[in-house]
Amino acid sequence: MPAEQHSITSGASRGRYINTGNGPVLQPIDINHPDYAALIDPDSAFWSLILKQEMGTVFDQKSSFLKQYLRKRNQFLEEMKALRFNALPQAVYFNPTERCNLNCSYCYLPEEQRSSGSHMSKRQLLKALDHLKTYFSRTLPKGLNPLIVFHGAEPMLVRDAMFEGIDAFKDYFRFGIQTNGTLLDDEAIEFIKTRNVGLGLSLDGHIGTVADRTRKTWSGDSVFKKVVDVLEKMAGYDNYNVICTATAENMSALPRVVDFLHALEVPVAMLNPVRCTRQGARDIKPLDHELSRYYLRALDRTQELFQKTNRKLVIANFANILIAIIAPAARVLMCDISPCGGGRCFFAVAANGDMFPCSEFLGVPEFKGGNLFRNKIDDVLTSDAFCKVTTRKVEDIEPCSHCAIRHFCGSPCPAEAYEMNGGMDKIGAFCELYEEQVRYAMRLIADEKTDAYLWDGWDQNTKKSLDLTTLSL
Ligand code: SF4
Ligand code: SF4
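^ thats the input. predicted complex w/ iron/sulfur cluster below
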């Protein structure tokens, strides 16, 4: 029914004005920039930078800005809906063992599992990969290779089974290994490089005394030197990254961590705020605003180093937010979108085949959706346990429901919301960090400085929908 007719019969508005009736909601936000503020439609994630002194003109019903935007709004809303609700799983976080040779302070797995849990046998691991191949061959388009990330506890404890699985299925799956790095010898490094396996290494500091505060063996010994030895051997390999978990113990060192990783020629790092799902992590949770200060300084440092050396260290968790703003469909990580990627874009498999929406839920029995060896994957994906995560929407959470940047943040993480704050309709642990990251990203866009923060070729498959990036009326 045309809008005009609809308003005659129902009494509803035709949506001609901003912020009233059925008109679009456009929320202005300060981005701490001398000249620009941002205007955001929180529902469609459309935004534009507006010269501050011209903000009022935008709201003129006859402004070209409003006309152009209204013509495109429905398309933006549809694109956002597709991104949020139509994805198919394309990746699996595969945990082939419950055990770990380290005892990190913030680990999201129960201590009992990590110290004496079970391993998946080689036969079971191959069988599991075969099940997954059968499932993905049916659900994904031909030519699209799903990703299997061997994940922790410490997957290198079952190295032989894992490497055999990689060799047996390397023509179908892409593979990654997330490891603490302590069990990687020269032969393992060679294996990883020759199969182009993605490698994620964990390191929480630029010197042993910082890194050892959170990451150490069960007897309290340092593993810093061992991990740095591995990093030195990875120089020149472009399919690896370093995860530095940011806590109260290391946040002030984040800019120096950037210098250190850049000097080691690490191409991509993540400075992830600690996931506060367990008490050990909550004990070292940094204050949101204090972490933000050091985190933004670390981002500044990546740009300074790029200018000096012409070599980038991309901070992937920030780059993902920047991309979520510039080209929402091109984002790669799936924590900063609502519903998040857990159980929707990927799922996690435990050492006994139990399936969870995300590794963050391993060890929380109410989020077990079924078992890979006993249940159909389709049934698990639609189980009540998975739906708790896949239907958690930012619109149902306070204060996110009226937050202008809700589709750049996504209100992560549901595991934190549940474990730390008492329910899926609660926020996670780092709201202010998202507020600051989005403002930082908007300033970079205003000053045309985004290139230093994004990996080369990130936009190869994107197209521009509407060029209203900055607006001077
Ligand atoms: S937000 Fe949390 S549950 Fe969702 S994908 Fe990220 S880590 Fe997993
Ligand atoms: S967590 Fe904070 S920044 Fe993120 S959507 Fe909610 S209110 Fe907004």
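Confidence is low (pLDDT under 50) at residues 465-473.
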